[in-house]
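--- STAGE predict ---
source: upstream dedup step, 1 unique chain passed
mode: sequence only
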Amino acid sequence: MVIDPAPGAGPGALRTARAAWAAVAPDATHHVVLQDDVLPCRDFAAQVADGIRELPDAPLALYANWNSWNGAATRAAALQGAAWVPAVPGEWTPSLALVLPRADVEALLAAVPAEVTGPEPDDTVLARELGRRGRRVLIPVPHWVEHADGASLVGNDVYGPRHSACFADDTAEGPDPAGPVAAAPDVLVHLFKGRVQLVLAADTPAPRRVSREGYLRAAGQEGRGRGRSARAVAALRPPSGLLGALCEEIWYAAYLMALHTPAGRAPAAGGDRVRLCLRSLVLGGTADRADLRLWARHRVGPLVALAEDGLRAGFDDREAYGRPAPLPPERLAALPDATLIWSRPLMLEER
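--- STAGE serialize ---
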């Protein structure tokens, strides 16, 4: 167990993280670091050992937040039946549960001063230092730890509950460390504060963002799915215009996820792992707005069914019309920086 070496220096996870990295055993080939608010999956130690045997040179992040880009990448990988997905460049490296090869531990210790006291988050430092060395972090699908409820030391309570995008103990199948690695997704469907945004060029260090309406318009597919979406939302009978708008966003989030799944690689829309990912889409995409979160939690079953309808519609249109072509570079470059999602999110009220 490693504790904060300078608890009087103010909130900050990096100095404790560095102390945890430095606790690597002298003869260890790999180092496992768990934060104190994680809940490991069943047979966790065996899963980690199997993962290291399968991927001995890869840093492994064993969790992704359900309303993060890496959570969206997890869902994209689940739709492909993959067991691993590369972490998204441009976002923090999930640090709640890490498996680091010894060389990565030594590089991190060399890059971070022993007496660090600054406020920079450990997950940001991990993303920068691992990325600088060209290290590809892999995330298991489903995740091997869950994030427990509780107050955040560094102010992350503003994002509401922060659970796994797909926790292994909630699936019938469980983890598969020997399974395939998904291709790094170039398009991520991100539901945040109840609003869909597409993260484009997500497999590059400088991704861009666009609303789902703007994306469908730019991709020449404006109006696609509108009738089916309207019927599915009306059948749910949302009690207000705002919640009706949320239902439409949930339907289109699932639709766009399916539209970007490579043909021939998608499991059935009703699969156990896929359904769990749709549940985390609904609950994670509303987690940081109490006015949406409470209703979504109350109606999570019908909302997951709504998302399943959007998923089937997306699969149908993908088979009929193919995946949308990538936007041309000049159009992509004109879009806002995707990191603005966190500081300037699109809101349902702006629709």
